[in-house]
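Treating backbone geometry as a discrete language has practical consequences that deserve illustration. The sequence in question and its structure tokens are set out directly beneath this paragraph.
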Amino acid sequence: MRRGGAGLAASRKLQLRARGAAAEPARPRRPSRRWRLLRARGPRLPGGRRHPRVPEWEKACKTRVHPQNPFSLGRVFTMSVPDYMQCAEDHQTLLVVVQPVGIVSEENFFRIYKRISSVNQISVRDSQRALYIRYRHHYPPENSEWGDFQTHRKVVGLITITDCFSAKDWPQTFEKFHVQKEIYGSTLYDSRLFVFGLQGEIAEQPRTDVAFYPSYDDCATVEKRIEDFVESLFIVLESKRLDRATDKSGDKIPLLCVPFEKKDFVGLDTDSRHYKKRCQGRLRKHVGDLCLQAGMLQDSLVHYHMSVELLRSVNDFLWLGAALEGLCSASVIYHYPGGTGGKAGARRFPGSALPAEAANRHRPGAQEVLIDPGALTTNGINADTSTEIGRAKNCLSPEDIIEKYKEAISYYSKYKNAGVIELEACVKAVRVLAIQKRSMEASEFLQNAVYINLRQLSEEEKIQRYSILSELYELIGFHRKSAFFKRVAAMQCVAPSISEPGWRACYKLLLETLPGYSLSLDPQDFNKGTHRGWAAVQMRLLHELVYASRRMGNPALSVRHLSFLLQTMLDFLSDQEKKDVTQSLENYTSKCPGTMELLTLPDGLTLPPVPFTKLPIVRRVKLLNLPASLRPQKMKSLLGQNVSAKSPFIYSPIIAHSRGEERSKKIDFQWVQGDVCEVQLMVYNPMPFELRVENMGLLTSGVEFESLPAALSLPAESGLYPVTLVGVPQTTGTITVNGYHTTVFGVFSDCLLDSLPGIKTSGSTVEVIPALPRLQISTSLPRSAHSLQPSSGDEISTNVSVQLYNGETQQLVVRLENIGLEPLEKLEVTSKILTTKEKLYGDFLSWKLEDTLAQFPLQPGKVATFTISIKVKLDFSCQENLLQDLSDDGISVSGFPLCSPFRQVVRPRVESKPVNAAEGGRPGEPGHMKTLEAVLNFKYSGGPGHVEGYYRNLALGLHVEVEPSVFFTRVSTLPATSTRQCHLLLDVFNATEHELSVRARSDEELILHAGECQRMAIQVDKFNFESFAESPADKGQFANSKHLEEERQEARGLEINSKLDIHWTIISFSQTQGAQRAVFTECLLWVRCTPSAPRPLFSPSKTVALNQTLPSSSWAIQGAEPRHQRRLCWDENTRHRHSQSSRCKSENKVVEKRLINHLEQSFH
């Protein structure tokens, strides 16, 4: 503890040594056992308790001890108990003691005491003076012995309260009243006895000193009787003042003494000049006290000044200090009419309006003026002192008041028995300095008060002393030092020397120390920025609160304080301390779990709940959208989505800012009533051990929400860890995620997002739409390892795959099951092909929903099915690296065989040439297959969501791998017997690894082994395409001639295919899988030719379409060459498209490849 500077505290040791040098008794005798017994006991109260330090009436009555007698045995010379509530304006008050007599309940006593103490200021009749009364309900009698030294310490009035219900008890009651009067008899001016409950003849007798009331409720004249009592005190006071102030020349002036001085003046020369000056100085000081009490402020100032001059000349230091203190008190009363003790009402002098010059009283530099004896009045009763108060010639300035206080305290410090006087003077000076806002000087006075050595104090007196020091430090703004002394007082309440420690008082005092250490019991105050205060001291104080609350028998308080310690001081705890605190918390919560309820203490203080927002620490909160298959979508309005119906204005600047804030909190997706919704939290475990979090769920508002709690275990210092919390909204509307709740170490916590520091969130409000059905789809195909990624960004819920030969048709059975709680009322199925580089012929996917929709509405738990046909017809002619010579007569092959790891290429027969693997590769390799990808979208709705215009979209991804099946390596014609017919010769190559049969419109079959090529002849009628006339609608539908020509070729190709009707079947599949459908595919042959021979095979100057994908060109069979050397070549139009080739001969092989590719594709 730091001592004061150059002021009072620095010279404290010298002052303590100087006390022994003063002319005073060495040490007072120890009080007798009887007197100590009387002081230790007090009047009985209900429950057998006694007021402390008040003599017992029966004992005093029997022994007749008179403490005021200076020659009584065991007399006490010092004041035992200091009055820490003393202030400078108390010097002008009259002390009245109010005490119970007999057995009086505390409630009734303090009920009357409150009414009595309300009469603390009255105006004197026929005068402008005011009289102030100070009431005490207990007061040490030995302190009254110092009444001559300072008259405000003298008990001048006594009011007793008693219960008396029968006349026979009245004599004993009245005797007790007289016994009580004898205790303060030598100083009393007047006394009163208030009797409650006594009625009859005794109560009707008129008495001045006794007032009878039938009950505590029927006592309306209490205040009036107190006013009369105070007026009687004033009359006695005024007579004493006049008697002391009157100059009686020739009479011997008595010497006023303090109790410990009386025997020191025995045998002194009473006729010496030194002795007379001492007597005059002390009497002047005493008269100044009386004038101050009588309301004559100016007269008291004059008397104090005269006393100071007289006492200083004779070195009467003790009384000189009292005169200086009186001078300071009178000056303080003048400068600060509102008082320095912080009392409710401001003290004003009657008749004085405190003119404008009162504002200049605090002016720095005001000096003490010379004494003006003419200011004294002879008749104080009728004097009007308002003008003298206004001028106040002898009043000290605010700066001089403090200097005189310092001087007076230095004189008090010379006397060992004046320790209480010195301590009270320090307290008075501190209160004055607090008003003057001179905190540093006030701290010096307090530092001096700390080192004042009083007698051996009891534990209660120590607690009171430390508490008052704490309040005074708080008054001057030294909050931390105030908290220090209040904590010392709290520890004194449970000192080992106390048989029954006061843990409740200790706990209450510890709570009062929290502000001084920048500590609050509200955890929200620790989320506002940098930590304030000393963490080590704060943790020590919180530990003491935990221990005190446990000793009080309140485990809920212990859990709350320990939770607060762990939450707010987590960053300052070591790893071992974290383990110890959490272990203690688990021990407490095993008996009393921690809750989020407010805890109200007996004195009305409320402790807020402590949520564990750091166990674990949450860094980010994100509301998750529903899965792609469950996301609701709004049906498009006829007005369009960009039109807003909320306001007719395009832009409203008034509400633009508020709308922006709403958009920042509201999320642009919806949740669905009855569906599980998810919120993702990124959490972090700051503890050095595994953290177990139980019962973790969401806190929401706006709609009814069922939170599904979860439990998790986070490893030590885990770093950011994702945690997903789920719940189900039960009603529609707008839901706001306010936070989450947890149970950690047995403490239940509600953690709000607004109270989480540094949290990142993309929004916390989302709309909940009415319930929708839930559709689950399963198919007859296996799931695919390929994940489709549509360019639109849609998510695919399920992917299936299938392997097909080119030209094969597969049936996909789709099973629809309503797994929701709402009926399925509407279903739409659409498809979208994702493969754009491959050209499809015919319908890839086809279905019929009529039978399925007939089962709607599909109730929850019901199943419906429908079939989708998958038909693949691709063009494999673009792969030129597979062109291979299969025979000596120049037959060529093109196309893509389908890859299959378990298939092997079978060597062709003798008449066919084997495949050259070096040139084209094996047909089963991955590069020889093609892939088709498509998405099936199922839009469905039902229930309340359908009424509001919402639906769901379920996407099914289809991955199809296509491998080549049959190639037509060569196409030629021969004339038939009829001129209207011809023979179509087709060289067919089996690119599969299985034996297959090829069948045309006739019943004849051609068996082909794997890798085998054979020729088949089909007799066909000549085609006449003149019937395909160009309609005006066709010309208007297609923008250019190219598209028109392609449509014509497609129509001709369809006509040829319908007449040929070529199919193929894999024999082994049909034999080994009798229960399954045989692999039966259709081959398409789209032919377009122009005859050049003398005898046309087809109608002259007509065209036969080879393929719908061929350009507008013609080809001819060159009759001049042998049959086996005939080739098909492109005309000039085709060569123009390939302008990079300069000679037709160099293009023959390439042209041949491309033509045969198109021919092969036409058969599929």
